[in-house]
Structures are given as structure tokens and as C-alpha cells.
Amino acid sequence: MDKTLVQIWVYLAASPLLWLAATLAAYLLGQALFLRSGKHALCNPVAIAVLLLCALLALTGTPYAHYFDGAQFVHFLLGPATVALAVPMYYNAARIRAMWLPITAGLLAGSATAIVSATGLVWLFGGSRQTLLSIAPKSVTAPVAMGIAEKIGGLPSLAAVLVMLTGIIGAVAGPALLARLRIDSEEVKGLALGVAAHGIGTARAFQIGTLAGAFAGLAIGLNAVITALLVPLLLPLLPPG
Amino acid sequence: MIGALFTLLALQLAGEFIVRITGIPVPGPVIGMLLLVFGLAQCGRVPKALHGVAETLLGNFSLLFVPAGVGVLLHVERIAHEWLAILAALVLSTLITIAATALAMRAVLRRRPPREPSDG
């Protein structure tokens, strides 16, 4: 019996099916816990899924590269999903045109603040040059951040992790901070969550309302463009390693 | 649905292609997104299938971050070494960014309030 189980494990562990299914299962479980907790901010589905999968990989001694053989099918969809951001942008074109000036102001302020404050703080706290370069695009959606990090000499895989952590922090603490600042406009709340915390912040913004969600989605797309342009420009100004 | 998926992939591919030949420092999917915005504006509407695919992908956007997030396992050593710098940078920078974005946008909104019919 034991031997059969081991054989089944060996077979399944070698195919991408197991870790692809495990990724979806962990996320579903994260979502279920999130709903059971009454949508408590700390029960972020991504955070739960990542923790569960890390524990599972550690327990079974599975290397990350092997896990990624299965999970890459989910990861791959980040690219087409980024292209699909054009759709909510198109739907809100009229509102965006009417508010283009405040949107531009928020985006530029947010994008520059994210790059300068993240790299500045890493430098201030004595972090390494590679961490500094990988954290520069942390507020941008993962595929774009990985591309930027790679172009400037950071580590794409580290950038992706920092992006995910940023998203969770923004989604958990963002709404409370916005309330503290007495921001009542849904457009402003959405834009701020999207600029600072990309897709995970956008998922949170959609819980505030569809208008906040649309502005967050818009912010992901525009911030990706602006940060991709700003990082190489600001790079010479960043503190030297 | 296949047509819509193909549209997204083809535009991403076109984006990668443009980035490679022009050498502009913007990732391919972002160019693909800009191409799609332009295309939709020309078309004047969103095809039903594309609407469906976009809604599905964006409705589950946070799931797509999970595989990259598990990559934290690759960087355990670095994070153990630099946890203070990373934690401080992520938490403070994210909060400052949210505040900077919201306050800048609100400041401009207040200076130039959106045209309202009652204001004439």
C-alpha cells in the first residue's frame, strides 16, 4: 500500500498537472478563507495561497523550478491580462478624458514617489544594490516589473516577489490610510490603490465599488507605462551601491 | 473566444516585436495594451468575446501573481539578510505612494473642479 502511494506520488510529482492544480486549489482555499473571515483585509487570498504553497513545497522537498513547470501556465496569463487592461480603459475613456489632468498629476506623483521612496529606503537601511534595483519597479504589475528589473540589472524573480508583497501591503493597509486622509472620491481611492498596489490593489478597489475598480485598472496600465519610462530616467539619480 | 484570446496574444507578440526593434525601455505587454486601446478606439466598441475574456482574466488578476509570489522561496537567504531594509522599504514606500497619489489627484481636482451643470 505504502509502495503504491509512493509510486503514485513519484508519477504525479513529475508532471506539471500536480502543481498547476495545487496552485488553483491554494487560491480557492485562500478565497474561501477570505470570504469566511468577512473579507478581512489580513486574510488576503494571494498571501494565503503563497504561504500554503511555500509550506507544501518545503514539506515535500520540491524545488521551485519544478513547481514552476506546472504553475507557469497560470503565470503566463499575466501577459495577455496586461494587454486586456485596455478594455476597462476603453470603457472609461470619457471619464478619463474629463479628468485627465488630476489623473496625470496623481500618476506622476505616485509613480515617482514609489520609485524614489522604495530605492531610497533600501539604501538608507543598508540593503544591497541588487535589492535596490529589483525594488525600483515594485508598484507596477508583475510582468512589467520583471521586465523593468531585468533591463536595469535587478533580479526579475525577486522583483516579482516584491511586487506581490507590495500588492498585499497596499490592499491590506490602503483603504484605512485613504480613510485617514479623508479621501471620499471613488476615483481617487481607485487610482491610488492601482498606482501603489497594481492588480492586488485593484481587486481590493473593486470591493469599494466598480468606479474605484475601473480607475485602479486604468492606473495599472498607465503606471506601467510611466514607471517603465521613469525608472531608466531616474536610475542615474538613485543612490550608488 | 479563441479569436479574443488570439487578439490578446497577437498584440502582446506585436508589443514584444516593437520593443525588440525600437529598443524602447517599455515591456512588450504594455505596448500591446496601448495597441489594443488604440484599436478599440478605432473600432468604436468592444467585441463581446473580447469583453468576456478580459473580464475573466482581470476578475482573477490576483491569482496570476501566485506562481511568481511562491518564488519567495528562491530568495529566502537574501530576505533573511536584508529583511529590515526590504520590510521598511515595502511598507513605508507603499503607504507614501498611496498618500502621494491620492493627495496630488485631490489637490488638482479641487483647483479645477469638474464641470457641473449647476455651476453653469
From TrEMBL, chain A:
InterPro entries: CidB/LrgB (IPR007300)
Transmembrane segments: 6-29, 41-61, 73-91, 103-125, 158-178, 214-238
GO MF term list: hydrolase activity
UniProt topology in membrane: Multi-pass membrane protein
Listed Pfam families: LrgB (PF04172)
Protein keywords: Hydrolase, Membrane, Transmembrane, Transmembrane helix
Major location (coarse): membrane
Protein name per Swiss-Prot or TrEMBL: Putative murein hydrolase (TIGR00659 family)
Entry's Gene Ontology cellular component terms: membrane
Subcellular location: Membrane
Organism expressing this protein natively: Plasticicumulans lactativorans
From TrEMBL, chain B:
GO CC terms of this entry: plasma membrane
Cell location: Cell membrane
Transmembrane segments: 24-44, 56-76, 82-105
Entry keyword set: Cell membrane, Hydrolase, Membrane, Transmembrane, Transmembrane helix
Superkingdom of the source species: Bacteria
PANTHER family assigned: HOLIN-LIKE PROTEIN CIDA, HOLIN-LIKE PROTEIN CIDA-RELATED
Name under which the protein is recorded: Putative effector of murein hydrolase LrgA (UPF0299 family)
High-level lineage: Bacteria, Pseudomonadati, Pseudomonadota, Gammaproteobacteria, Candidatus Competibacteraceae
